[in-house]
From TrEMBL:
Pfam families assigned: MoCF_biosynth (PF00994), MoeA_C (PF03454), MoeA_N (PF03453)
Organism: Rhodanobacter humi
Classification of source organism: Bacteria, Pseudomonadati, Pseudomonadota, Gammaproteobacteria, Lysobacterales
Pathway linked to the protein: Cofactor biosynthesis; molybdopterin biosynthesis
Function: Catalyzes the insertion of molybdate into adenylated molybdopterin with the concomitant release of AMP.
Name the UniProt record assigns to this protein: Molybdopterin molybdenumtransferase
Enzyme class: transferase
Family of this protein: Belongs to the MoeA family.
Record field: catalytic activity: adenylyl-molybdopterin + molybdate = Mo-molybdopterin + AMP + H(+)
Domain MoaB/Mog: from-to ranges: 180-321
InterPro entries tied to this protein: MoaB/Mog-like_dom_sf (IPR036425), MoaB/Mog_dom (IPR001453), MoCF_biosynth_CS (IPR008284), MoeA-like (IPR038987), MoeA_C_domain_IV (IPR005111), MoeA_C_domain_IV_sf (IPR036688), MoeA_linker/N (IPR005110), MoeA_linker/N_sf (IPR036135)
Keyword Magnesium (UniProt): yes
Tree of life domain: Bacteria
EC number: 2.10.1.1
NCBIfam families assigned to the protein according to its UniProt record, in alphabetical order: Glp_gephyrin (NF045515), molyb_syn (TIGR00177)
Length: 417
């Protein structure tokens, strides 16, 4: 394994070469929120399924001509929401919003545009009503047999509303990649309320990954914190694979320090190290390996922002391939101020993208870019990526911008309070 810094684009190609799309699976609609459609959904029925009234009023028929104001019609029947098919003979039908329009009728007049008369029960029109007025035609929203949702859509509540309305009980979705997270370091404390002994820190990487991975389309099947011993790590790795993980992510112990034991542990596992160390900041020591059984391993550095960058720019693209999605296309947004960096490294910067009064977007590089600074990450709504070869960029220069998660559209509206 070479110790030369690998270009991040080359590293990503090596990662994606190890990834294949997982087979699709059936999913009940009640469990489909946040899943990625693997196949297009074809409407099994029309929506609406029948002609129905858009308001409370009276349903009438009149051919091609409007029915004039002042005309009177005998009330022949009543139709409420949920009533079945009825056939009109003549006259008007009192009808409720959403009720099926009786066969033979072709328009509805609002109740407030009518006057009800007695002896015999009839209705007088206070306004003219033309054919088609206030009708919701069968299939006017969705025609039976058309594709309503395309493969690759991340199912949101609005999609579930449509599928439920169409009577779709199950959908074909991409199988979630099964991942495990192993946080290393004897200094880590998991219990949020526990007092810290001298030299200890709280584990922030574990909760971050546990929250972010399902949002990125994965299923987290195992999570564990281990010390700095190879044997303990190997035992935790075995538990992760027993839980069904096909991708394992570790944090920490991948650099060059005395306690950076992950490369040794991988050797004992018989893993093939595909690369170690990238020309990026933060996250330079990132390691990627493949185990003999095909399990993929991402060794992320321990600093929290290095973990966030490793997840967003190297793990999430792998998940996209496994979910059957195309490569992500970034936004290109202008910088609000000059920016200078060291050459020969690609920088991933916490940024705030906002929209101006004219609808233009611009990216502000936030203060606090060091890899240990978490607070500035909470103020960011995007990552700005400065290319490896760049040195100085002037205000107004276009840079690639990515949202916090590959599956969710970035929220670039408004200013940050």
């Amino acid at each position: 394994m070479s110790h030369e810094l690998l270009a991040p684009e080359a590293a990503l190609r090596l990662i994606l070469a190890e990834c294949t799309a997982l087979p699709a699976e059936n999913c009940a609609l009640d469990d489909a929120l946040g899943r990625v459609l693997a196949e297009a959904v074809i409407a099994p029925e029309a929506l609406p399924p029948f002609d129905n009234s858009a308001m409370d009023g009276y349903a009438l028929a009149g051919g091609s001509e409007p029915l004039p104001a002042g005309s009177e019609w005998l009330i022949e029947g009543e139709q409420a929401a949920g009533d079945g098919a009825s056939r009109a003979r003549h006259g008007a039908w009192e009808i409720m919003t959403g009720a099926r329009v009786p066969d033979g009728l072709d328009r509805v007049i609002a109740v407030e545009q009518t006057e009800r008369l007695d002896a015999p029960p009839r209705v007088r029109l206070k306004a003219a009503v033309a054919a088609g007025d206030n009708l919701r035609r069968a299939g006017s929203d969705v025609a039976q047999g058309v594709a309503v949702l395309a493969a690759g859509i991340l199912l949101a509540p609005n999609h579930l509303m449509l599928l439920a309305a169409l009577g779709v009980a199950r959908v074909r979705v991409a199988t979630r990649p099964r991942l495990a997270v192993l946080c290393t370091g004897r200094e880590l404390v998991d219990a949020a309320g526990a007092a810290l002994a001298p030299g200890q820190i709280r584990n922030s990487n574990g909760p971050h990954l546990a929250a972010a991975l399902p949002r990125a389309g994965a299923e987290l099947v195992h999570r564990e914190t281990v010390g700095d011993e190879v044997e303990a790590f190997l035992a935790a790795f075995a538990r992760a694979r027993d839980a069904g993980a096909r991708v394992v992510i570790s944090t920490g112990a991948v650099s060059m320090g005395r306690y950076d034991f992950v490369p040794e542990a991988l050797q004992q596992l018989g893993a093939t190290a595909i690369f170690h160390k990238l020309a990026i900041r933060p996250g330079k020591p990132l390691l990627f390996a493949r185990l003999p059984d095909g399990t993929l391993f991402f060794g992320l550095p321990g600093n929290p922002i290095a973990v966030a960058v490793g997840l967003r720019f190297f793990v999430e693209p792998a998940l996209r391939t496994m979910l059957g999605l195309p490569h992500e296309v970034p936004w290109r947004v202008s910088l609000t101020a000059d920016y200078a960096k060291k050459p020969r490294l690609r920088f991933h910067l916490k940024a705030r993208v906002a929209m101006d009064a004219q609808g233009g977007l611009s990216a502000q590089v936030l203060e606090g870019q060091e890899s240990y600074r978490i607070r500035s990450l909470t103020e960011a709504n995007a990552w700005a990526v400065i290319p490896l070869e760049a040195n100085t960029l002037a205000a107004g220069s276009l840079v690639e911008v990515y949202g916090p998660s590959h599956l969710h559209s970035p929220d670039f509206g408004g200013s940050h309070a």
